[in-house]
Amino acid sequence: MMKKLYLSTILLVFLSFFSIGIFTSYGVSAVFPHPRPPSPPPPPPTEDNLAWWCDVVNAEIVWGGFEDAKDVNTAIHGGGINVCIIDTGCNYTHLDLDDNYAGGWDYVKPDNDPMEEGGNYHGTHVAGTIAMEDNEVGYIGIAPRINLYVLRVIDPLGWADAEYINKSLHWAIENEMDIVSMSFGGFEEIDFLNVTLNKAYDAGIVLVAGSGNYYKGWPTNVMFPASHPKVIAVGAVNSDLFRANLSNTGTWGSCYGQGLDLVAPGVNIMTTGKSDTWVTDSGTSLACPIVAGICALMLSKNPNLTPDQIRDILFNSENVIDLGPTGWDEEYGYGMVDADFAVSNVSYPN
Length: 350
Ligand SMILES: [Ca+2]
Ligand SMILES: [Ca+2]
Ligand SMILES: [Ca+2]
Ligand SMILES: [Ca+2]
Prior knowledge:
- The protein is α/β, with parallel strands linked by helices.
- 28% of the residues lie in helices and 13% in strands.
- It has ten helices and nine strands.
- Strands 2-3-1-4-5-6-7 form a seven-stranded parallel β-sheet, sandwiched between helices.
- The model is unreliable at 1-34 (pLDDT under 50).
- One calcium ion binds next to loops.
Protein backbone atom coordinates (compact mmCIF):
# COMPACT_ATOMS: atom_id res chain seq x y z
CA MET A 1 0.00 0.00 0.00
CA MET A 2 2.80 2.41 0.65
CA LYS A 3 3.69 4.27 -2.49
CA LYS A 4 6.25 6.64 -1.11
CA LEU A 5 8.91 6.09 -3.70
CA TYR A 6 6.46 6.55 -6.49
CA LEU A 7 5.09 9.74 -5.15
CA SER A 8 8.48 11.17 -4.46
CA THR A 9 8.65 11.72 -8.21
CA ILE A 10 5.67 13.96 -7.91
CA LEU A 11 7.57 16.86 -6.53
CA LEU A 12 10.48 16.47 -8.84
CA VAL A 13 8.00 16.63 -11.65
CA PHE A 14 5.88 19.47 -10.50
CA LEU A 15 7.89 21.72 -8.33
CA SER A 16 9.21 24.71 -10.05
CA PHE A 17 12.48 26.61 -10.03
CA PHE A 18 11.88 28.01 -6.62
CA SER A 19 11.33 24.68 -5.02
CA ILE A 20 13.80 22.64 -6.99
CA GLY A 21 16.53 24.72 -5.41
CA ILE A 22 15.40 23.28 -2.12
CA PHE A 23 15.64 19.79 -3.50
CA THR A 24 19.11 20.28 -4.84
CA SER A 25 20.15 21.66 -1.49
CA TYR A 26 19.02 18.43 0.07
CA GLY A 27 20.93 16.49 -2.54
CA VAL A 28 17.79 14.75 -3.72
CA SER A 29 18.17 15.85 -7.28
CA ALA A 30 21.30 17.27 -8.79
CA VAL A 31 19.84 17.13 -12.27
CA PHE A 32 17.53 20.10 -11.94
CA PRO A 33 19.82 22.98 -11.09
CA HIS A 34 18.29 26.32 -11.76
CA PRO A 35 18.81 29.73 -10.25
CA ARG A 36 15.97 31.03 -8.18
CA PRO A 37 14.20 33.74 -10.18
CA PRO A 38 14.24 37.24 -8.76
CA SER A 39 11.35 38.22 -6.56
CA PRO A 40 9.20 41.11 -7.70
CA PRO A 41 9.76 44.44 -5.97
CA PRO A 42 7.89 44.89 -2.70
CA PRO A 43 4.38 46.04 -3.45
CA PRO A 44 3.22 49.46 -2.30
CA PRO A 45 1.02 49.35 0.79
CA THR A 46 -1.82 51.47 -0.56
CA GLU A 47 -3.30 49.29 -3.29
CA ASP A 48 -3.07 45.73 -4.53
CA ASN A 49 -0.97 45.06 -7.61
CA LEU A 50 -2.68 43.47 -10.57
CA ALA A 51 -0.48 40.54 -11.54
CA TRP A 52 0.00 39.90 -15.26
CA TRP A 53 -1.33 36.38 -14.95
CA CYS A 54 -4.55 37.62 -13.34
CA ASP A 55 -4.93 40.39 -15.93
CA VAL A 56 -4.32 38.14 -18.92
CA VAL A 57 -7.06 35.70 -17.93
CA ASN A 58 -9.32 38.66 -17.07
CA ALA A 59 -10.25 37.53 -13.61
CA GLU A 60 -10.18 41.20 -12.59
CA ILE A 61 -12.98 41.95 -15.05
CA VAL A 62 -15.14 39.34 -13.30
CA TRP A 63 -14.60 40.42 -9.69
CA GLY A 64 -13.66 44.02 -10.42
CA GLY A 65 -16.19 44.82 -13.13
CA PHE A 66 -13.73 46.36 -15.59
CA GLU A 67 -10.32 45.90 -17.19
CA ASP A 68 -7.37 46.46 -14.82
CA ALA A 69 -9.54 46.65 -11.68
CA LYS A 70 -7.68 46.35 -8.37
CA ASP A 71 -10.66 46.04 -6.07
CA VAL A 72 -13.54 43.61 -5.78
CA ASN A 73 -16.55 45.53 -7.08
CA THR A 74 -18.96 42.76 -8.12
CA ALA A 75 -20.68 39.85 -6.39
CA ILE A 76 -18.71 37.27 -8.38
CA HIS A 77 -15.58 36.85 -6.28
CA GLY A 78 -15.70 33.27 -5.08
CA GLY A 79 -17.29 34.04 -1.71
CA GLY A 80 -18.84 30.94 -0.17
CA ILE A 81 -17.14 28.55 -2.59
CA ASN A 82 -15.06 25.84 -0.90
CA VAL A 83 -11.74 25.25 -2.63
CA CYS A 84 -9.09 22.92 -1.26
CA ILE A 85 -5.52 22.45 -2.32
CA ILE A 86 -3.73 19.16 -1.72
CA ASP A 87 -0.12 20.14 -1.28
CA THR A 88 2.80 20.83 1.09
CA GLY A 89 0.64 22.77 3.50
CA CYS A 90 0.25 26.53 3.41
CA ASN A 91 1.47 29.61 5.24
CA TYR A 92 -2.16 30.54 5.84
CA THR A 93 -1.29 33.30 8.32
CA HIS A 94 0.16 35.30 5.43
CA LEU A 95 -1.56 38.68 5.43
CA ASP A 96 -2.71 38.14 1.84
CA LEU A 97 -4.33 34.77 2.71
CA ASP A 98 -5.38 34.82 6.35
CA ASP A 99 -8.89 36.16 5.85
CA ASN A 100 -9.71 33.46 3.30
CA TYR A 101 -8.22 30.49 5.11
CA ALA A 102 -11.01 28.28 6.37
CA GLY A 103 -9.37 25.09 7.63
CA GLY A 104 -7.91 21.80 6.57
CA TRP A 105 -5.96 18.80 7.76
CA ASP A 106 -2.33 17.76 8.07
CA TYR A 107 -1.70 14.14 7.08
CA VAL A 108 2.08 14.48 7.49
CA LYS A 109 1.95 15.31 11.21
CA PRO A 110 -1.65 14.37 11.78
CA ASP A 111 -3.67 17.22 13.24
CA ASN A 112 -5.95 19.95 12.02
CA ASP A 113 -3.13 22.40 11.32
CA PRO A 114 -1.75 22.21 7.75
CA MET A 115 0.75 25.04 8.26
CA GLU A 116 3.64 24.75 5.82
CA GLU A 117 6.56 23.68 7.95
CA GLY A 118 10.21 23.43 7.00
CA GLY A 119 9.38 23.11 3.34
CA ASN A 120 9.64 25.07 0.15
CA TYR A 121 6.37 27.04 0.26
CA HIS A 122 5.02 25.27 -2.79
CA GLY A 123 1.55 25.06 -1.26
CA THR A 124 1.71 28.72 -0.24
CA HIS A 125 2.52 29.69 -3.83
CA VAL A 126 -0.38 27.59 -5.10
CA ALA A 127 -2.80 29.01 -2.52
CA GLY A 128 -1.94 32.62 -3.30
CA THR A 129 -2.61 32.16 -6.97
CA ILE A 130 -6.23 31.35 -6.19
CA ALA A 131 -6.87 33.21 -3.00
CA MET A 132 -4.82 36.40 -2.46
CA GLU A 133 -7.10 39.04 -0.98
CA ASP A 134 -8.28 42.45 -2.06
CA ASN A 135 -6.66 44.13 0.94
CA GLU A 136 -4.62 46.94 -0.64
CA VAL A 137 -1.33 45.08 -0.31
CA GLY A 138 0.42 42.46 -2.41
CA TYR A 139 -1.60 41.01 -5.26
CA ILE A 140 -5.13 39.70 -5.82
CA GLY A 141 -5.82 36.06 -6.64
CA ILE A 142 -8.18 34.68 -9.26
CA ALA A 143 -11.03 34.22 -6.78
CA PRO A 144 -10.20 36.58 -3.92
CA ARG A 145 -12.91 35.60 -1.44
CA ILE A 146 -13.09 31.82 -1.59
CA ASN A 147 -13.04 29.62 1.46
CA LEU A 148 -9.50 28.24 1.24
CA TYR A 149 -8.93 24.77 2.65
CA VAL A 150 -5.50 23.14 2.79
CA LEU A 151 -4.70 19.43 2.97
CA ARG A 152 -1.04 18.79 3.74
CA VAL A 153 0.22 15.53 2.25
CA ILE A 154 3.79 16.29 1.18
CA ASP A 155 6.53 16.45 3.81
CA PRO A 156 9.37 19.01 3.84
CA LEU A 157 11.65 16.72 1.84
CA GLY A 158 9.07 16.23 -0.86
CA TRP A 159 7.85 12.79 0.19
CA ALA A 160 4.21 11.90 0.05
CA ASP A 161 2.19 8.78 0.58
CA ALA A 162 -0.53 8.00 -1.95
CA GLU A 163 -2.76 7.02 0.94
CA TYR A 164 -2.58 10.61 2.21
CA ILE A 165 -3.85 11.80 -1.14
CA ASN A 166 -6.59 9.19 -0.98
CA LYS A 167 -7.60 10.38 2.48
CA SER A 168 -7.50 13.98 1.29
CA LEU A 169 -9.99 13.23 -1.46
CA HIS A 170 -12.27 11.54 1.05
CA TRP A 171 -11.86 14.57 3.32
CA ALA A 172 -12.90 16.79 0.40
CA ILE A 173 -16.04 14.71 -0.12
CA GLU A 174 -16.97 14.63 3.57
CA ASN A 175 -16.35 18.33 4.03
CA GLU A 176 -18.29 19.36 0.94
CA MET A 177 -15.55 20.93 -1.09
CA ASP A 178 -16.65 22.42 -4.41
CA ILE A 179 -13.23 22.29 -6.06
CA VAL A 180 -10.01 20.32 -5.45
CA SER A 181 -6.77 21.71 -6.89
CA MET A 182 -3.90 19.23 -7.29
CA SER A 183 -0.49 20.64 -8.24
CA PHE A 184 1.33 17.31 -8.30
CA GLY A 185 1.65 14.32 -10.56
CA GLY A 186 3.39 11.08 -11.33
CA PHE A 187 4.03 8.85 -14.31
CA GLU A 188 1.75 5.98 -13.39
CA GLU A 189 -1.87 5.73 -12.48
CA ILE A 190 -2.76 4.47 -9.03
CA ASP A 191 -5.88 2.32 -9.15
CA PHE A 192 -7.26 3.16 -5.74
CA LEU A 193 -6.84 6.87 -6.43
CA ASN A 194 -8.73 6.46 -9.69
CA VAL A 195 -11.60 4.99 -7.70
CA THR A 196 -11.58 7.85 -5.20
CA LEU A 197 -11.29 10.50 -7.90
CA ASN A 198 -14.45 9.06 -9.48
CA LYS A 199 -16.17 9.17 -6.10
CA ALA A 200 -15.19 12.80 -5.62
CA TYR A 201 -16.42 13.73 -9.07
CA ASP A 202 -19.69 11.90 -8.51
CA ALA A 203 -20.04 13.85 -5.28
CA GLY A 204 -20.06 17.04 -7.36
CA ILE A 205 -16.48 18.18 -6.87
CA VAL A 206 -14.63 19.90 -9.71
CA LEU A 207 -11.19 18.27 -9.99
CA VAL A 208 -8.21 20.15 -11.43
CA ALA A 209 -4.55 19.09 -11.78
CA GLY A 210 -1.35 20.36 -13.39
CA SER A 211 -0.18 18.48 -16.49
CA GLY A 212 3.46 18.21 -15.34
CA ASN A 213 6.71 19.95 -16.16
CA TYR A 214 8.88 17.36 -17.85
CA TYR A 215 10.80 18.22 -20.98
CA LYS A 216 12.76 16.21 -23.56
CA GLY A 217 14.38 13.10 -22.37
CA TRP A 218 11.37 12.52 -20.20
CA PRO A 219 7.83 11.50 -20.98
CA THR A 220 5.82 14.56 -21.91
CA ASN A 221 2.32 13.12 -21.80
CA VAL A 222 -0.09 14.51 -19.30
CA MET A 223 0.69 12.96 -15.95
CA PHE A 224 -1.49 11.39 -13.27
CA PRO A 225 -3.87 12.55 -11.79
CA ALA A 226 -4.24 15.14 -14.59
CA SER A 227 -4.64 12.19 -16.96
CA HIS A 228 -7.72 10.92 -15.13
CA PRO A 229 -10.74 11.51 -17.41
CA LYS A 230 -12.66 13.47 -14.77
CA VAL A 231 -9.73 15.71 -13.83
CA ILE A 232 -9.20 18.96 -15.74
CA ALA A 233 -5.60 18.75 -17.00
CA VAL A 234 -3.90 22.15 -17.08
CA GLY A 235 -0.69 23.04 -18.92
CA ALA A 236 1.32 26.25 -18.56
CA VAL A 237 1.95 29.17 -20.90
CA ASN A 238 4.28 32.12 -20.49
CA SER A 239 3.37 35.81 -20.75
CA ASP A 240 3.74 35.61 -24.55
CA LEU A 241 1.09 32.87 -24.45
CA PHE A 242 3.42 30.16 -25.70
CA ARG A 243 3.65 26.77 -24.06
CA ALA A 244 6.05 27.00 -21.16
CA ASN A 245 9.27 25.52 -22.42
CA LEU A 246 12.44 26.73 -20.82
CA SER A 247 14.74 24.15 -22.33
CA ASN A 248 17.20 26.79 -23.44
CA THR A 249 17.74 28.17 -20.00
CA GLY A 250 16.27 25.62 -17.67
CA THR A 251 15.08 22.10 -17.53
CA TRP A 252 11.36 21.89 -17.95
CA GLY A 253 8.49 22.30 -20.34
CA SER A 254 4.79 21.98 -19.71
CA CYS A 255 3.67 18.38 -20.39
CA TYR A 256 1.27 18.02 -23.26
CA GLY A 257 -0.45 15.49 -25.44
CA GLN A 258 -3.67 13.56 -25.49
CA GLY A 259 -5.64 14.39 -22.38
CA LEU A 260 -4.48 18.00 -22.04
CA ASP A 261 -7.59 20.10 -21.52
CA LEU A 262 -6.59 23.72 -20.96
CA VAL A 263 -3.63 26.00 -20.41
CA ALA A 264 -3.17 28.93 -18.04
CA PRO A 265 -0.26 31.22 -17.12
CA GLY A 266 2.53 29.32 -15.38
CA VAL A 267 5.77 31.25 -15.79
CA ASN A 268 6.86 34.05 -13.43
CA ILE A 269 3.75 33.91 -11.30
CA MET A 270 3.88 36.43 -8.45
CA THR A 271 2.29 34.94 -5.36
CA THR A 272 2.46 34.52 -1.60
CA GLY A 273 5.62 33.12 0.02
CA LYS A 274 7.30 32.71 3.38
CA SER A 275 6.22 35.02 6.23
CA ASP A 276 4.50 38.02 4.67
CA THR A 277 6.54 38.04 1.46
CA TRP A 278 5.59 37.67 -2.18
CA VAL A 279 7.71 35.66 -4.60
CA THR A 280 7.75 34.52 -8.21
CA ASP A 281 7.33 30.86 -9.07
CA SER A 282 6.82 28.89 -12.28
CA GLY A 283 5.37 25.57 -13.37
CA THR A 284 2.09 23.87 -14.13
CA SER A 285 1.71 23.92 -10.33
CA LEU A 286 0.75 27.57 -10.74
CA ALA A 287 -1.37 27.13 -13.87
CA CYS A 288 -3.56 24.55 -12.11
CA PRO A 289 -4.87 26.85 -9.35
CA ILE A 290 -5.60 29.58 -11.91
CA VAL A 291 -8.09 27.23 -13.55
CA ALA A 292 -9.40 26.12 -10.16
CA GLY A 293 -9.96 29.78 -9.32
CA ILE A 294 -11.88 30.39 -12.54
CA CYS A 295 -14.09 27.40 -11.73
CA ALA A 296 -14.74 29.06 -8.36
CA LEU A 297 -15.83 32.26 -10.11
CA MET A 298 -18.20 30.24 -12.30
CA LEU A 299 -19.69 28.62 -9.22
CA SER A 300 -19.85 32.02 -7.58
CA LYS A 301 -22.24 33.13 -10.32
CA ASN A 302 -24.25 29.92 -10.20
CA PRO A 303 -23.62 27.52 -7.32
CA ASN A 304 -25.89 24.94 -8.95
CA LEU A 305 -23.47 24.29 -11.82
CA THR A 306 -22.32 20.68 -11.98
CA PRO A 307 -18.76 19.65 -12.76
CA ASP A 308 -20.04 18.41 -16.12
CA GLN A 309 -21.52 21.81 -16.91
CA ILE A 310 -18.32 23.60 -15.90
CA ARG A 311 -16.26 21.32 -18.11
CA ASP A 312 -18.67 21.75 -21.03
CA ILE A 313 -18.25 25.51 -20.87
CA LEU A 314 -14.47 25.43 -20.53
CA PHE A 315 -13.85 22.65 -23.03
CA ASN A 316 -15.00 24.71 -25.95
CA SER A 317 -12.51 26.68 -28.00
CA GLU A 318 -15.10 29.43 -28.42
CA ASN A 319 -15.12 30.05 -24.66
CA VAL A 320 -11.34 30.18 -24.21
CA ILE A 321 -8.43 31.86 -26.00
CA ASP A 322 -7.65 29.38 -28.75
CA LEU A 323 -3.86 29.11 -29.07
CA GLY A 324 -1.76 27.14 -31.56
CA PRO A 325 -3.63 25.27 -34.32
CA THR A 326 -7.37 26.02 -34.52
CA GLY A 327 -9.43 24.09 -32.00
CA TRP A 328 -8.15 21.53 -29.53
CA ASP A 329 -4.48 20.69 -29.97
CA GLU A 330 -1.85 18.76 -28.06
CA GLU A 331 0.10 21.72 -26.75
CA TYR A 332 -2.73 23.99 -25.60
CA GLY A 333 -5.75 21.71 -25.23
CA TYR A 334 -8.90 23.73 -25.91
CA GLY A 335 -6.92 26.89 -25.25
CA MET A 336 -6.11 29.37 -22.49
CA VAL A 337 -8.79 30.02 -19.93
CA ASP A 338 -10.43 33.44 -19.80
CA ALA A 339 -12.43 34.11 -16.66
CA ASP A 340 -14.64 36.69 -18.34
CA PHE A 341 -15.58 34.34 -21.19
CA ALA A 342 -16.12 31.48 -18.77
CA VAL A 343 -18.36 33.41 -16.40
CA SER A 344 -20.25 35.06 -19.28
CA ASN A 345 -21.27 31.57 -20.38
CA VAL A 346 -22.71 30.75 -16.97
CA SER A 347 -26.43 31.45 -16.47
CA TYR A 348 -27.60 32.80 -13.14
CA PRO A 349 -29.54 30.24 -11.13
CA ASN A 350 -33.31 30.18 -11.66
CA1 LIG B 1 -7.38 41.91 -18.05
CA1 LIG C 1 -7.61 46.64 -3.83
CA1 LIG D 1 -3.75 41.60 -1.75
CA1 LIG E 1 -5.76 25.48 -30.43
